[in-house]
Structures are given as C-alpha cells and as structure tokens.
Amino acid sequence: MTYKAVIFDLDGTLVNSIEDITDAMNTVLRNHNYPTHTYKTYKNLVGSGIKSLVVNALQKNHRSDLEIDNCLNTMMTIYSERCTTKTQPYSGIIKLLDSLKSKQLKISVFSNKADVLTKKVVSALLPDYFEPVFGLKIEAHKKTNPIVALEICKTLNVLPEETIFVGDTGIDIQTANNATMLAVGVSWGFRDKKKLIDHGASHILNHPLDLIDLLSV
Prior knowledge:
The chain is built from nine helices and eight strands. By secondary structure, it is α/β, with parallel strands linked by helices.
C-alpha cells in the first residue's frame, strides 16, 4: 500500500502541551480551593477533550453540572491565554513534517481539543503544514467517533485505507481502526507503548522520522 495522507493527533503527538494544560487547570482548581494534580496525573486525564479533563480533575463531590460549567468556562479562558506558553513541538517533528511536505503527502490534524484552541496552537507552533485542521466542535463527534477523520479524507480526496492516523493514546488508535486507517502510535506521548498495542496499534514510532519507513509498506 502506498499512503497518500497522514492525519495527526495534536497533544502528545505533535506537541508536548502537558505543562500548559496542567498549569491552566491547576489555576482553575486553586481558584476554587480544590486539590491540584501533577503533570503525571494529567497525562492520564487528557485525550477526551477539555470538558472531560475538567470533570476528571474535579473531585467527585464537586461535579455538579453548574460547577463543571463554571470550571470549564474558566479553563477555556485561562488555557486560551496560555496554550503556547510552554508548549513546543517534539524533537524531530519539524523534520518529519518537512519530509512529508517534500514528498507531497497530504497532512492534517484532528484533535479532541476545542477547535478554536487546536487552530491557535497549530497556527502558532506549526504554521503552513496542515490542511485541514480540525478540533472538537460537536461533543458527539469527538474521537473515537471516526466521522471527522472520514470527513478529512473526503476533503483531501483520499480513501481511508490510503491514510495513516498517528496518535499517542488508545483513543487515537481506536479512531484509526474505526475509520479503517492504518493505526500508528507514538512512544513519546502521554501513554505507554503497551496501552497503544493493546488498543490495536499496527505500528509504534520511537522517533518521528520512523514514519517515513511506513509510507510504502
């Protein structure tokens, strides 16, 4: 199979954003006099969108709809201001994207991060590489639902089986498999290799440039 397109997850795959996410969410929690969490804890809380992050960061007895909405609104405001403060592309990502671009591969981003924040991070840190860039607009369409991934294929005029989906969580791997794309995990992200393999990853990348070897497998 010769692949024509690559869809990337954003957080934990292209960029290391865990410090900005942690700092913003912990600011929200401190403002409400709630316990905060470590970077390590947040690595296991991210992946399903900011609302899910807020819910899981709150103690169970503080998860009323009103409290979730209040904290979510505050998180969106604070994180929007700080989402590129410490966040940076992982080592090797720029070289990978340049290589894919030189090979005329079509490359896109699909994230469970809110759409406006996804576009802000990509525009600031990885401009002029991706088309289209999709974040979460409709809760029901977030990964593992493949609907957006399939929409990207239509936009790019490629078949799902001609597409590689790269991500760092089981959610990404399940999305890829649900969309009948090649499911590729990365070892440098927010989950370990075993979890990615357990969720059905066909390949695991140990370095971004390892992806080049899969383009014509």
